[in-house]
Amino acid sequence: MVKPPSSTPAPPLNATGSPKPGSPFDRRRAWLITALIVTFMLINYADKSVLGLAAVPIMDELGISNSTYGAISSSFSLLFSLSGLIVGFVSARVTSRVLLFTMAALWAVAQVPVLFVASVPALVAGRVLLGAAEGPAASMSMHALYKWFPVDRRGLPSALQISGAALGTLIAAPVVTWLITAFGWRSAFAALAVTSTVWALAWWKVGHDGPYGQDGQDGQNRQDRAPGGGPTSGRAGRLPYRRLLMNGTVLGSIAGAFGASWALALSQAWLPAYLRTQLDMTPGGAATLVSGVSAFSLVLLLAVSPLVDALSRRGLSSRWSSGAPQGVAVAVAALAMAAFPFVDGRMPLLLLIAVAFGGHAIVFPLHYMTTAAVVPPVQRGAVFGIVAATGTLPGLIAPYLTGRLLDSAPSHGVGYAQAFVLSAAVMLVSGLVALVTIRPERDARRLGLTGETGPAPRPAASV
């Protein structure tokens, strides 16, 4: 049982101000870091959403086509995956404190070009820089979070970290829409630049690395060792990346993330415009629905941890407690999206929109948990970066492809229908692959990591 924070001794610190490996679990500091990382993800998704929320006024003011707007939106992902991949390997040598501070500072800088020159090149420059700085955000913030929690306490923090994404859209949609309506679309970019700067300064002050599974440390925490005593970190615990990346659990986790990211990219780039132009919603009405979808995602995310906890207590394997839900969630979202063109009633359509663009949210915390189950902690940051880089490639494809379909179709209604059916097909295949291939226990045994995996963490009972 965890002692109250007041009775927990302060952990010993190393020269950088971070707790030394082997330090006791610092509950208060761990949850402070969690709160900062949730805020980090909130800002991250607000930054991503701002272009979609401002799409109609930007297109009207600059006189650009759907294809051009789609290209601007896709430019965000031009360096997104590459930077996620590179920073994943860099994380073995650079502290999470430095990495997350640098990302947030660059987010602020990325909003600046469009404030001086409202043009397509300025929008592209800002989105490319923002994408490069946000590519490693989800994986590296999860990696930073895991440094503050032992293995059996990571489920709830993981869900909260991902919930920052839903909160980002939930809060950003009405606030950003209000700024755009009241002060013009540039004001939203300026507000996000200030917000990112404030977060970066706060993180630099308190965002030191935690003691669990720190890369490069010879002494390992008992919580980051296999129950049998074998190391899961350090050079002795390293495995060839080819073996790690080619096992079914990692490939299935990537597939699940790919399908979920396709829906996410489509919603961020085109959902507000679709609601306004096809469903004749006002800016406020569209923002309210987008917030409602995010609220639905948030509820699902917060329900994941207790559900996984209950399934684990019943002895259910990780394959079924945290693996299969990824495939099912993406497949159900795909079927809902495929039904858009065939539904006439407004209310049924809105419900399908909520399922299609919100139901996949649980994939994001779960795919990190299943990946972590088959990767030694010392290589976790790098593998997280690789998984994020490949799983988020839809951000480079879906927005531009949708714009092309809209411009080539006889009407926007037909173009949206084609885009939704194509997206549903991609998502359905991704979900089925995830459902079939994610088997953490089996793959951990094959990699010689038996004992490190097992039922997913049980956060609710141990926090």
Care to give the gist of this entry?
The chain has 463 residues and is mostly helical. It contains 21 helices and no strands.
How would you characterize this protein structure?
The chain has 463 residues and is mainly alpha-helical. Helix content is 70%, strand content 0%. It has 21 helices and no strands. α9 runs antiparallel to α13 and α12 runs antiparallel to α13. The longest helix is centred in the middle third of the chain and has 31 residues. It is globular and about 55 Å long.
Give the topology, please.
Elements: H1 27-53, H2 55-62, H3 66-75, H4 80-90, H5 96-110, H6 113-116, H7 120-134, H8 137-146, H9 155-183, H10 185-206, H11 241-245, H12 248-277, H13 283-313, H14 318-338, H15 346-358, H16 363-372, H17 380-391, H18 394-408, H19 412-437, H20 440-446, H21 459-462
Number of strands: 0
**Main sheet properties:** none
Given helix and strand content, the structural type is mainly alpha
Give the SSE order as H and E letters.
HHHHHHHHHHHHHHHHHHHHH
Global outline: globular
Tell me which CATH architecture applies here: Up-down Bundle
What is the CA–CA distance across the termini?
9 Å
Number of domains: 1
How many separate helices?
A: 21
Radius of gyration: 21 Å
What characteristics describe this protein?
disordered C terminus; Growth Hormone, Chain: A; 0% strand; disordered N terminus; mainly alpha
